[in-house]
Amino acid sequence: MKYLSINLCATPYRPAPFGMLFAGLGMLALAWALMAEARVSALEIQIEQQQRARRTQQRRQDTSIRKPAAPGKEGIVIAAQGHALMPSLLWLERTWNKNVIYERIEVDNTSRTQRIEIVAHDSETLYGLMDSLLKLPQISQVTLLRQQSANDAVQPTLQLQWRAGGR
Fold first, then answer.
1. Is the Cβ–Cβ distance between 35 and 45 less than 8 Å?
2. Label partner for 114 (CA 20 to 30 A): which of 13, 27, 69, 80?
3. Nearest CA to 95 among 67, 150, 146, 136?
């Protein structure tokens, strides 16, 4: 039978310095890889959320598109309501100056008219606004419906008639 000898006075085992260095580098590489994986998964989640939001927005736009108008008087009204008001409002933006205040704007797409209540600094400013509106090719007629003068200001009501092809 062999006996097991245990030497309690022997010098303890000391690992090699290169082994410690490689173990430390391995841990750093592992930490770097885990952080990169976390960043990639966060980006994938963000991309998925953006795609989901884009799909819901597209779905909302698809449902908000109006059906073509039916023939008849109701169809004409529905088609007129489907037109954008931006071109008619852009006319006012182009002809605006600092001496004119737009108080009320009414747009009627079916009769292609626009009624505007304004406050002008003086009558020359009012007539200049009317001239600049008439110079626009989309507008066929500008009518002065009502005019009041109060406190050094002119308060007229204008009616614009635009051409069918001007929209």
1. no
2. 69
3. 136
Domain range for 29: 18-65
Element (H, E) at 103: strand 100-108
Q: What is the pTM of this model?
A: 0.47
Q: Is 120 a domain residue?
A: yes
Which token pair is 86? 């931006």
Please state the domain count of the chain.
2
* 8 located within any domain: no
Checking if the pLDDT of 115 tops 80, the result is yes
Q: What would the pLDDT profile of 73-97 be if each residue is shown by its tens digit? A: 776 666 666 665 666 777 778 777 8
Burial of 83: CB neighbours in 10 Å, binned 0-12, 13-18, 19+: middle
Place of tokens 């079916």: 110
Residues, the chain: 167
